[in-house]
Design a protein that fits this description.
Elements (H helix, E strand, L loop, with lengths): L3 E2 L10 H8 L14 H12 L10 E6 L2 H20 L11 H16 L6 E7 L8 H11 L1 H9 L1 H26 L3 E2 L9 H8 L6 E2 L3 E4 L9 E2 L2 H4 L6
Antiparallel strand pairs: 1-7, 2-3, 3-5, 3-6, 4-6
């Protein structure tokens, strides 16, 4: 696997501004402690709300943390989650990423861990998927449409289907939020490490038991500079018409 530096193409469909934003939207983990205005955070949430939601159900909610006392209580949870990640999956560089580059990324992760209490804002996207409205007639018609084998597979993959259905309703909005942050000059990065201790996070933030959380997104003004991202070349990831 190869990784290349991505440069925006001003001639790309949609104009140069959006593509330049996407091609320089690095995960920025080193943040200034300066506060982010409430109205700016509202802009981020507005961008998220504009994201598509499966079936237009719009059952998302966003917990926004800016209170330093609350952030200080979350910091030990964040440390435990990050330490767990770095001891397991994060112990090794991803394939195609050299050790020096990965070392720099780990240093940024550790910096964020050690300065988490100073994070200006944390956004936690949540979603409560509504109970399905099913009836016998509809279930029979569904089974007939899928066929016996596919119906059986569907019955055994309900947990995965549910997770993907929820995620497809949440993550388009999260991507909008990240794009909006970059456009406004804010640093942000998406993590799901909080899921190691999701129950503790939900208790600390008063999130209802039946509400699922999908990310913990630290937001603030960057200490570093935005620059081109490094990604796999398009030619290496495309399969045209079939695999």
């Amino acid at each position: 696997m190869t990784i290349e530096t991505v440069q925006a193409d001003p001639s790309a469909l949609g104009g140069p501004a959006l593509f330049d934003t996407m091609s320089t939207m690095r995960a920025m983990r080193r943040l200034k402690p300066d506060a982010v205005p409430d109205e700016t955070i509202d802009q981020l949430i507005q961008a998220a709300v504009w994201g598509p939601s499966g079936g237009n159900m719009q059952c998302y909610e966003y917990v926004v943390v800016t209170d330093r006392e609350v952030m200080a209580r979350l910091a030990p949870l964040w440390k435990r989650c990050v330490d767990s990640y770095l001891a397991t999956t994060g112990k090794y560089a991803p394939k195609g990423m050299d050790e020096a580059a990965y070392g720099r990324m780990v240093a940024a992760i550790e910096y964020q861990r050690d300065h988490f209490a100073d994070t200006p804002a944390l956004i936690v996207p949540c979603y409560r998927f509504p109970a399905p409205r099913l009836d016998e007639e509809g279930l029979i018609a569904s089974a007939q449409a899928l066929g016996p084998a596919a119906t059986e597979r569907m019955m055994t993959s309900q947990a995965r289907f549910q997770a993907l259905a929820e995620g497809s309703c949440v993550y388009p909005g999260v991507q909008n939020l990240l794009l909006a942050a970059r456009a406004l000059g804010l640093a942000a990065n998406i993590t799901i490490w909080h899921l190691f201790l999701e129950q503790e996070w939900k208790q600390e933030l008063g999130i209802p038991e039946d509400m699922a959380t999908f990310a913990a997104i630290p937001v603030g003004w960057p200490l570093g500079n935005f620059g081109p991202v490094r990604r796999r070349p398009v030619a290496d990831v495309i399969h045209r018409n079939r695999w």
